[in-house]
Amino acid sequence: MKSVALEAFPRAAAKRNAVKKLRAGGRVPGVLYGREGSPRAVEVDQKALETLVHHATSETVLVDLSLQGASHLALLQEVQHHPISGSFLHVDLHAVRADEKVTVSVPVEAVGEPVGVKTGGGVLEHVMFKLKVRALPKDLPEIIHVDVTGLEVDKSIHIGEIQPAAGVEILGNPGFAVFSVAIPKAEEAKPTEAVAVEGAAPVEGGEAGAAGAKAEAGKAEGAADAKKADGKKAPEAKAKGK
Amino acid sequence: MATTPDLTKHRKMHRGSRAGIARRGHTVAFGQFGLQALERCWMTTRQIEAARQTITRTMKRRGKLWIRIFPQKSYTKKPLEVRMGKGKAGIEDWVAVIRPANMLFEVDGVPEVVAKAGMRLAAAKLPIRTRFVVRGRA
User: Fold this and answer.
1) The domain at A103-182 falls in which architecture?
2) A186 to chain B: which residues are within 8 Å by CB?
3) How far apart are CA B55 and CA B105, in angstroms?
4) Which residue has the higher pLDDT, A208 or B100?
5) Number of other residues whose CB lies within 10 A of the CB of residue B35
6) B76, B53, B60, B65: which is closest to B124 by C-alpha?
């Protein structure tokens, strides 16, 4: 992973109101922490961070951070976004050493279309979107590509089957599935009803048939309720009449 | 699809608060595409089911759908022309409390065009404004 330059400034604003003003002024609050030294409150330029994140494959980016004239190698450990607007709220910068291995979550991407999807009618399930890897900062992959073309129905690719690049170690249980191809369950259940009711497409008809049956049952229940209600109301009416 | 909880500790609940925005359940966590709420509401079982059916039918035999919300909350309503008092009324319906940013549905295994079409039709069945979101795309 190549490191990208980013400039940070020391931050005095720590309370909520002050940090809000900071964001309004085009800065993003953050924190720089690591094994050496105590955590430091920093702020970075919003546009610079936007450019950095949008040009990267994932939000785990190696940055060459310049802070008060000193240079730090750091990882964008976490970027917090606003749930609706998506704007940056806070950034965690993890200071690392170039000669020390770090553990980072890296996104996994499928390459190709599985045989099970092409011919078997299955669906490719992306079970794990990120994998934890351990490597030197310079060896960290931006993304892990996994070839899934040979994957058949009801088969999976596990963590243990993924071949990492040289110098990279994939962590986690080797038996955990990352990709699998499965037959969709919802479509299997109701084709018989569908043919019997409408002769339409199995899934839609099945649902329509089921809905129709429910509706009929509902009507029957409704009628029963109405009768009950009539029975209950009658004495009241009599009482009022008196 | 289950439309009500199997068991609740208390049948009749307080109205509660719908204030604020969703701080949990607001990201695309399972699939590739999602439908995100932009307003707040009580979403009923019927509305959720109608949207679900629409998405399923648009996707036809392909893909996978996740329903990220569930009607956990019951609400009561007095019948018409009934005087106040005499205890809390019977349960009218079950609803999911939706706040802005809540992820309502997620799909995967279909092209973006299909997912978008399904979500658009489903959104028309819902009482609030929503937006189509893609994993990793702000």
Assistant:
1) Beta Complex (2.170)
2) 56, 65
3) 9
4) B100
5) 26
6) B53
CB neighbours of residue B23 within 10 Å: 9
Show the tokens assigned to B73: 């909350």
Q: Which of B105, B104, B125, B95 is nearest to B63 (CA)?
A: B105
CATH topology of domain B33-76+90-134: Aldehyde Oxidoreductase; domain 3 (3.90.1170)
- CATH of the domain spanning A4-99: 2.40.240.10
Q: For A171-215, what is each residue's pLDDT tens digit?
A: 999 999 999 998 876 544 444 444 333 333 333 333 433 344 444
pLDDT score recorded for residue A54:
85
CB within 8 Å of A202: residues ≥ 6 apart? A187, A190, A191, A194, A195
Alpha-carbon torsion (B47, B49, B52, B58), positive or negative:
negative
Search chain B and give the residue with CA nearest A120: B62
Residues in B closer than 8 angstroms to A228, CB to CB, are none
Closest partner CB to B101 (pick from A84, A126, A129)? A84
Alpha-carbon distance B127 to B43, whole Å? 8
> Is B61 within 8 Å of chain A by CB?
yes
Strands A144-147, A169-170: parallel, antiparallel or unpaired by DSSP? unpaired
Whether A184 sits inside 8 A of B61 (CB atoms) is: yes
B1 near B67, Cβ under 8 Å? yes
Given a contact cutoff of 8 angstroms between Cβ atoms, the answer to whether A73 and A61 are in contact is no
- Nearest-neighbour CA in chain B from A123: distance (Å): 6
Q: Using pLDDT thresholds of 50, 70 and 90, give the confidence band for residue B138.
A: low
Flag if B64 and A84 touch (Cβ within 8 Å): no
Give the residue with greater pLDDT, A36 vs B88. Answer: B88
Q: What is the pLDDT of residue A192?
A: 46
d(C-alpha A90, C-alpha A41), whole Å: 11
Q: State the DSSP H helix or E strand holding residue B98, giving kind and residue range, or none if neither.
A: strand B91-98
- Which tokens in the block code for residue B19? 């204030």
pLDDT confidence bin for B72, thresholds 50/70/90: very high
How many residues are there in chain A?
Answer: 242
